[in-house]
């Protein structure tokens, strides 16, 4: 359960992005140069999917590296406890303090129809946790995850797993986004019973299968989703910039396999370009 909860947080954060630039269609990239003795690899994931089977080139990259670094340390035994401390408002506020009676009824219907329970049981939960509960509902199949698959590989290869940021840092990202925008998106989800979100996620899954990370990026400017379109600096740009020094540190220590949401890779503020700006050669691994 701790991994599922953390995956939903990661999913809420990591499929968002900024201005696009054209890149090869690839989710796997090799990092070389700038003093690295051996190459490391950068893999763009999608956090919830119908098929998290790793391709042969990804498996080869995992064999050539000696540690795995993801957005979060998915094997942290304290994650569940930290998560549970973070999901509730601490000032006594509830859902009813932020939405109209009519919108409350819509959200309640959304939970009853999709979760089999009234939202009253979750009134003190922060809005992005409420929204992220519906991510598995975007799929028409049992949920799989590349993060869980990478965690499994790490255990099989007896390798350490590390994170580029802490759970607290990920939670803070949404704490920094105005609540009115987060609730506006939750109300929108309720009004059309997830129709827009299911359609959008289906398109994103197709693009991911095509490894078209630039097109995934282009989808993120749709202002239907306020949390994404109006707060990309917080969701992506700042986080990507914060990751670069950590990626450098891990890669210089030993050959490392980095797995982060595919939306973090492309764009002028994406991890690929930021690593190139720092002097590294970052090239697509093409099938």
TrEMBL record:
Signal peptide (UniProt feature, chain positions): 1-22
Domain of life: Bacteria
Keywords of the record: Signal
PANTHER family: CYTOPLASMIC PROTEIN, CYTOPLASMIC PROTEIN-RELATED
Protein name, UniProt field: TraB/GumN family protein
């Amino acid at each position: 359960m701790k991994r599922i909860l953390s995956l939903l947080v990661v999913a809420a954060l990591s499929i968002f992005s900024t201005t696009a630039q054209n890149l090869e269609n690839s989710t796997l990239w090799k990092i070389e140069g700038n003093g690295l003795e051996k190459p490391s690899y950068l893999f763009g994931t999608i956090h919830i999917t119908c098929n998290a089977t790793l391709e042969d080139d990804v498996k080869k990259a995992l064999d050539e590296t000696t540690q795995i670094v993801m957005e979060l340390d998915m094997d942290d035994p304290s994650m569940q406890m930290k998560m549970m401390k973070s999901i509730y408002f601490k000032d006594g506020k509830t859902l009813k303090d932020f939405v109209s009676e009519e919108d409350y009824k819509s959200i309640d219907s959304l939970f009853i129809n999709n979760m089999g329970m009234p939202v009253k049981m979750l009134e003190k939960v922060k809005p992005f946790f409420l929204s992220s509960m519906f991510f598995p509902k975007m799929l028409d199949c049992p949920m799989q995850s590349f993060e869980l698959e990478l965690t499994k590989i790490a255990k099989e290869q007896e390798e350490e797993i590390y994170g580029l940021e802490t759970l607290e840092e990920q939670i803070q990202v949404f704490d920094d986004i105005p609540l009115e925008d987060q609730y506006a998106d939750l109300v929108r989800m309720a009004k059309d019973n997830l129709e827009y979100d299911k359609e959008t996620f289906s398109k994103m899954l197709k693009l991911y299968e095509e490894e078209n990370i630039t097109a995934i990026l282009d989808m993120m400017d749709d202002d239907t989703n306020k949390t994404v379109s109006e707060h990309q600096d917080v969701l992506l740009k700042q986080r990507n910039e914060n990751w670069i020094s950590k990626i450098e540190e891990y890669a210089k220590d030993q050959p490392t396999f980095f797995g982060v949401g595919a939306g973090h890779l492309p764009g002028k503020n994406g991890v690929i370009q930021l690593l190139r700006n720092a002097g590294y050669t970052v090239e697509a691994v093409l099938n």
